[in-house]
Amino acid sequence: MKTIEKFFLALGAILASSTAANAADVSIRTPYNPATGIWIQQVGDLYPSASTFETVYYTRYSEQLSAKAVDYYYDGNGYLKLYNRRLLCRTRGADGIIHHPDGDLVVAGQNNNEIYKVSKSAKDTLTNQCVTKTVSSQVGSSTFHLMMNPDNTVLWSAGIPGNLVSFATDSTGKMDRIRQVKVYGDVNNITTIVWDKSQQAYYTRSDNMGEGSYAQFGKIVDTTCAINAKPCPANQITGLKTKTLISGLNGAHGASFDDYSETILLFGGTHIVQIDPSNPSKIAADVDLNKYLFTPSNENHWVGYNRWLLDQGTADHKGHIFVASNSGHLIFVDFTSNPNKLIDNNILIHVQWIDNYLDDVAPMAGAGSNRQSANTEGGNVVSSNSHSSSASVYKESSSSKVKSSSSTGTSRSSSSRSSSSKSSSSSVKGGSSGSDNSSSSIGEGGNSSSGKTGSSSSVGEGGDKSSSSNGGDGGKSSNSGTGTGEDPSSSSKGGSGSEEEPQNSSSSNGGNGSEWVPPWSKDSTYSGFDDDGSEDKGGSDAYPTNDKRDKGDTLVTNGSILVPSSSQSSDTNHVVINGETYKNDSTQKSIPLPTYGADSSYATGRERVNVGDVIQITLDANKIKDYFSDSDSLFISGTEGLLFVDPKHPSSPNANISVGVGDEDVTIWVTADTTVSVGSIYFTDKDGHLIIFDGINFYDPIPAAEIGYIQDSDDDGFLDSIEVILADTIPKGMTATGLAILIDGDTLPVHNALSVSKNRIFASADGLQIKSDNFPEDAKVIITYTSEQTGANYRRKGNLLELGSHVINQAYAIRNLHGRDSLFIEFNVDIIPADLKNPEMVTWLNGQGFDLDEVNVYLPTKNTIILVGDSLKLNGKTDYVTLAPGAVFENLSFIASAEYDRQVPVKVVDRFPAMKTVEYYDTDGNGELDSIAVRFSTKVTAEELENYYFSFPWYSSRGLLINLQAQPKSLILSADGKSAGWRVTSNQNVASNLTSVSAELPPATLYTYYTIFGNSFVSSQTIPVTDKMAPVISAATLHYGESARRDTLTVSFSEAVDYESLVGKDFFAYIHSKDTIDLNPTMMLWAADGKSVQLILRESTDGIVPGDSLMIIAGKKSNISDVYGNASVKNASPVVIGGLLGKIVESVNMGFFDPEQYVTNTLNSVSISYVSNQTRTSDLRNEGTLGHLISLGERFVPQLIDGAKTDADGNYDAAVLDSIDPADVFVNFSVSYFDNLGQYVTDTTFNIPCNSAAFGTDQNCLTTDKKVFVNWNYKDHTGRLVGSGVYVVEFKLVVRYKQKKIQEEMRDKWGVRRKKSK
After folding, report:
1. Which one, of 992, 996, 929, 994, lies nearest residue 966 by Cα?
2. 1.10.3470, 1.10.150, 2.40.160, 2.60.40: CATH of 915-1027
3. pLDDT digits over 1012-1046, tens only?
4. Are the C-beta atoms of 71 and 86 separated by less than 8 Å?
5. C-alpha distances in angstroms, 1193 versus 785, 1148, 1188?
6. What is the CATH code for 1033-1139?
7. Other CB atoms within 10 Å distance of the CB of residue 209
């Protein structure tokens, strides 16, 4: 699992007798220990549930890393049986494990940055046989935990914590890397991802301990996507944003979603934590193994890393949890009895050691599993006796013959109580027999034995291990052999009891009835797994016990270091290893290693050899037969770093090989590509037998080349002297025998003699003809060391740099006549901050040092420094820099004396002109920023302008602050070069009706780019924005008063107007139809803030209607301007006047008539007439007529057509008018008259088609020069003339055009007078 070393935890058999109580006041008993490595705890009541059986797939993180499996059966009522542990595949690394959609397993490769696709049905457990595909994560981070996306299409891998990588998967076997996914937000790396039922993703973040302040649980709150899609498909996700929900959460390491409880389960440290997604910031329930079982630190029986260390777990979606602890224990929790489906009460905990270096378990249900839930009921079941369980139990049959038994079946059974004897016995596998007084059980390959009343025995595989148990008087005892068969068990002794109250015993402690014993245990047999490394079926599992090491010392008869051969690589019978040639026949020479073939009991191991050396090891043929029986091949692997070669079938060194065995001794070769300290070699056969040969030591005493220098010592233009600085002195027994230079892929050997002094090597490069010009920066020096003992060669490589003109490469300065100067110095060696602790001791300018109180030093790149001061006294002609006397650099161990005197000329340029002002303009007066002018301190050339980039702050139409970016190509330089203009362009709409600059607006920024040493350096200048925008009309609304003279036009502005400086009232004009008419109101009432004004209109302007346009014009004596004097531009954009259509219909509300002169028989009560467009209500009033005067014609078009058809000037496209068929336009009038008491007088309705001939020659109401007059002829509905008095009139006008409707209603009081003619 981890990068730290872990050790096997062997839990002791003796437990502390004290009990504990958890925070929920739940009674905690001392856990029951029925067999070695098994502890059982029950909290609260337990109720029967469905039995389940399945396979748990898991990994080992060290000592023969591998994927393995173990089967289980749970009867649903407290009894759990684990059996048939087996090896599936050996992998180069092993941590996380998950099921591929095609049914294979996927195993994480730890620090190998790989994941492996593993076949469950491979014929061999060798890596090259069972690993069907290897995919690299391609990131410099380890690969530990694996998670499958809910749709099974994307596999995720993560470190602990570390980088997150996605892989594409499908049911056809696909497994391809997609990308590294960025993690950002509250945390930038994670350990595990888990999804709830709604597919909301959560995460854990912790190291392998899974607890403490570092452990966090959080939520994925956003994603970045490679495509434009919401939600983003999993295979397109490029980033995940994190939000921490719980910090310092003990248990936040592994994670699994449980569909049974619809909760998230977290695993880590000593905790199993339950989280409800509906309230994910709170812990729903928690199981602490230190409370529910015991605290490891309080026990004396833990070996090595003494603590629980939960890693990854899984739920079977049936109310059961399986969790792997790095201590080697599998933790099982049954919480089906809890009514709230929580793990805080009414639970069973079964803990059992199953394997050394246990790491992770694969999901048992949901995504990443090979099924939806654990199997329940039915099938072949391995179980104990039935005890209030609903599960079927397979029972073996027995014969009545004494001392013999037989049985067959497809499943294995523990105790079945099938004996006919009064005393009870148990069987492991095979059959059971009974008589009045004895019984026997047989393990695989074992022999049966008989015993007297109350006793039984069993023999393990090969008969070399056995156990027995004796029952007390009349009591019952169980017996299980500790052999290496498929169901290894522990021994037990029964305590005293009676026939009515049988006593069950466990481990090495006899029970006397005082400790808690599960009620089902009297009918159950528990068997712990052996810790000797044996497997139930196939493969091997190394547990380093001393007997296996002792056998390893006798298996290896001798070892020696191979001496490289002088044979050419083209010769037959040779192998090239680490660049050296070795003969794979009897002529190969070697140097003996005395401790190989002897006991390696001392801690430092065997003789040390150099990394890259090859050790030849011989295995005794007779010992192979003794230890591995009739095996015809051995599988060889070892500690990480060890590599193996079979000289009979040579190939490149491999981490594991298989060699054939027979009657002759076996020879293998061992090498290493890294240091190995007291390493081990593992020899296993197909049946799982294991022998260990340890004490292997490879070390690396050969000093690396820290740096090499080459220089032209005689100034002839050719580099002729080499000096190499080593990391250490050359050890005894090793000689520097060769030197070469690697330039542009060519290796140039140095043929001159080498001189060594302490940790430096000197050589002449004469004859190589390497020119000093353009010496490559990536040149290397290669040193060859030769072992005096074996003649083996070892090579080390380092960087080779040119000395002489090397330290300072070039210098450049930007001179500012009115500000700070900048001096750039580029070095040919990387500079680190430590070099600048005393900046005055780095470089000098013009033979003088710098005053650090006046000069600042910066390190913008790894090999460039910048010195900035108010005046560096640059003359611009003869400036130069040198190294300061005594200057030293961390990355340069040696500097030639002449280098301190070398003068490097400084190229000096003047700084580009700076900004003087930035001015914002609204040139067309529409209330939007459209132009920006920048004025410079001095003249700017077109070439200089190419290096200017501007950022201007302003506001978008949504009110958000944005930066407008002006590129050099879009700037317009003035003729004198002292200013530049920019027509504002943006991919966002800028704010409208905004012509003022607030104090909160950030300053404008000028970025000036200088190309120096092939890199771009940028300086920035900020300056406040100057407002050059004049006020504009933002809105105009017409309000009708009771009299035309009281009509008011309210005008709003984009900013405050300096109205106190205005003289006169001639600042506005309005556009009516095609006419522009000056507006001279009777009064102007300004708001105190100057942002609006009310214009009291004259009667002569009663023709203004909504839809006309208002504009600002220049006054005769003053102009509309803001407080900064920005006057409105000429021909500023007009604004459409808003308001109700009150002037479309006007009423004549006072009339008179002479009854004697009035013609009564020719007129209806109400009539329509068509009058001149020049007719006004005053004209009709003078005539004494009553009625409504309606204006249609062209001025009515803006009201009839959508406002979008009309521009700001009130103009519209004539083509639009032409496109309107007057036959589609209808005008409807309805009018009702009532007397002052509300009594009905008369009413009428008119429908007039727009194409009526009454509208003139065009027969079009939209282009007519007529007005319509709806005249009341002073008659009631009977045709009689009405009397003098006040009448109430209700009038309604409706104009329809297709789906468009304009409607106006009026209610008025009219006066009628009768008068007699004289």
Report:
1. 929
2. 2.60.40
3. 988 888 888 999 999 999 999 999 988 876 544 56
4. no
5. 107, 20, 16
6. 2.60.40.1220
7. 17
